[in-house]
Amino acid sequence: MASTFHRDEINPTKNPLFISKDSMYLAVIAAVIPNIPYLFLSLFVCPMRFFPILLYFLLAIISFHLNFFVFLILAIAIFSFDLVFVISGIFGLPPSLIVDLIKHLPTLNLFSFSGYMILAALLVLVAWLYIALLAKNRDAFRKASLVPAFLAFCAVVSIDLSFNPPTKLFASMFFPQPEKVTSATLQTGLDVPGRDGKKGHVLIVMVEGLGAISNPVHQDLLWEIFETEPVRSSFKVTSGTSPYYSSTTAAEARELCMHWGDHRDFLEEAAYDCLPARYRADGYETASFHAYWGSFFNRADWYPKLGFDTLYFRESVGKAGDGAAVRTCGLTFKGLCDGDVANVVEAFLEQGAGKPKFAYWLTLNTHIPIEAGAATPRLDCKTGGPFRDRTVCRLTEMWMDVLYRVRDIALNPELKGLEVLIVGDHHPPVWTRRGRNVFETGQVPWLHLNPLANREQDMPI
């Protein structure tokens, strides 16, 4: 029996599985174009993006049924959500904190880093293409098959999952563990002023981006700075690690107030029992030091609530402690140079007599992205050094510069009896998987210099 051939068997409006030119065009726009910047970023570091990919796909297949202005608003909202989502994953910050950061953008020099400029231009381009092409082809896409678009969506999701598997660290950013706070200040006993009858100066140094290095040999590149006879004869040296969560201000809440949270908590009326206030109540003069603007994350507003008597920020430091003009360092976070701030810290500790001092120094210059040539070359970083990663190597050289300066302060003969705690705030958000794998997940290191009795006896207070 002869079969009958009908034209509508190849008509794409009758056969939804037919792969027409418009169907393929819709697939590219719905699943590929809006994800191009992040597919490229996945070659380096990018969080898993299932939800943004799904939202682009769903909006594309319903766009030709929507009013253009409704579609435009939804498209802008999805691109904004995707950007916040990715920044949160790369920098380990809760999305709500990224939104809060927007009001502080004028203080940042975002386009000093060429990588940010390239990514921003690419994002604008793909957003324009996605919106313009869907709007221009509304009528044609109403008749297109959705099968190619769905298959392209599945392919992009598969690529995303293969390059960017979910991690414990990324999950904890949205769903933090309700564990009890364990900080370096608690582990070293610095939460109790004047313990064991000691009442000398105290210096806490929080080092920007200093994560716990997994390889003990590589971690010792930093800690061996304190493996010297002058240090060992003056201090009991101990080290360890502590869990961290979220941003630098969360680290400040952790170490200074034994609190899981961030700066937004201190802007509210709730009171917290923080170390600066404890030390001030015990007769200490308290001061904080940071090379960036006091308005950033409102530090000038909430630092006094923690108990700091004096605040030193970029706008308030005119001269370094040795009288030299203060320089500026850094790229996106361009502020004072940490070496110059160290001079101010040391000068504060040396000033006057008869009253112990509690000093807190938050470093700045190792904020990613870092400035080229900012560190003293020690590790042959042109080839990646011992880490086989140039960024981590250069960061380590910069951390070494800070630690050598801290060692000098600790051994200052005018500051006998000084107790020092060095602690990281969070992992550095480096842009390579190899670089990120250098660090232990969710841990920061600390090192404590506790003055020995023979040194304490000479404390001039």
Please tell me about this protein's structure:
Helix 16 links the parallel strand 3 and strand 4. Helices cover 44% and strands 11% of the residues. The chain is of the alpha/beta class and 461 residues long. The chain contains 20 helices and nine strands. It has helices spanning 21-32, 36-41, 50-62, 68-91, 95-101, 114-136, 138-142, 147-163, 168-174, 184-188, 216-223, 229-232, 248-257, 263-267, 275-281, 299-306, 338-350, 390-410, 433-436, 453-456, and strands at 202-207, 235-243, 285-290, 310-312, 328-329, 335-336, 357-362, 419-424, 443-451. It is elongated. The longest helix has 24 residues, at 68-91. The strands form two sheets. Strands 2-9-8-1-7-3-4 form a seven-stranded mixed sheet, with helices on both faces. Helix 4 (68-91) crosses helix 5 (95-101).
